[in-house]
Amino acid sequence: xxxxxxxxxxxxxxxxxxxxxxxxxxxxxxxxxxxxxxxxxxxxxxxxxxxxxxxxxxxxxxxxxxxxxxxxxxxxxxxxxxxxxxxxxxxxxxxxxxxxxxxxxxxxxxxxxxxxxxxxxxxxxxxxxxxxxxxxxxxxxxxxxxxxxxxxxxxxxxxxxxxxxxxxxxxxxxxxxxxxxxxxxxxxxxxxxxxxxxxxxxxxxxxxxxxxxxxxxxxxxxxxxxxxxxxxxxxxxxx
Length: 239
Ligand SMILES: Nc1ncnc2c1ncn2[C@@H]1O[C@H](COP(=O)(O)OP(=O)(O)OP(=O)(O)O)[C@@H](O)[C@H]1O
Ligand SMILES: [Mg+2]
Fold this sequence. Notes:
By secondary structure, the chain is of the alpha/beta class. The protein is built from ten helices and ten strands. The strands form two sheets. It has a six-stranded mixed beta sheet with strand order 6-7-8-3-9-10, sandwiched between helices. Helix 3 runs parallel beside helix 6 (138-150) and helix 6 packs parallel to helix 7.
C-alpha cells in the first residue's frame, strides 16, 4: 500500500509550470528513487509534497489524508522529514550540538536518548561528536544531516541528492546507510539522485522524470537495465 501519493499533480512556482500530471506512489518501508536530467522537476516534486511549491491542480495524500498545500511545518509534524539539496548542518556547532538543536522541541530526556541512539547508528559521528560540523567531510556531513532529521522520528525521509559531489567510496557508504535506515529503522525513503546508478542499485521502485512528466515507473532494476532510457537519460549503457 502506498503511504504517500500524488494524484494528477500539476505544480510549479507561482505561474511557472514545472510538473504535469504526476502520479507518484511511495510504498511503506521501501526505497523509492527519483532520477532524471537537470531541471526535470525532481526537487519540485519534493517541494510540492512538503508544501513548498505552488499546486496548480491535483492532490497529495499521506497515510490516506489529503495534505495538498498544507504548510510545511504541519507536514513535518505528521512525520515527513525533508533534507534539501543544499547544505543543512550548522558548521560552527559541534556534531552533538547540531543533533540537540534538531530536537529542540523535545523534552531534554528524549533529546539525550535520541542523540545517543543516533550516534550508535552512525559510528562515524560518534567518533567526531565534539568536532565542529564544518570540519566534517562531505559524506560525514550528509550522515549528520540525516541524523538531525531522525531526531524527530519521522516515518518518511525525503532525500534530495545526498551523493552529489561525493567521492564514489563515500557514495557507497551513504547508500549503505540508506539501506540500513529502511531495514533497521523501518523508514520509508524517497531519494532524488544524480548518481543514478548507485541509487537504482539499492532502490526498490524507481521513477524517471523528464521535463516535468513521468517517463518511467517500475522496479529500480528494470530502469537500470532499460535498453533505451538508461542510456538516454542516465548515462548508463543498457544491459
Ligand atoms: N523557486 C523557483 N522559482 C521558479 N522556478 C523554479 C524554482 N525552482 C526551480 N524552478 C524551475 O523549475 C524547473 C525544475 O527545477 P527542479 O529544481 O525541480 O529540477 P531538478 O530536477 O531538481 O534539477 P537538478 O537535477 O538540477 O536539481 C527548472 O526549470 C527550474 O528553473
Ligand atoms: Mg534538484
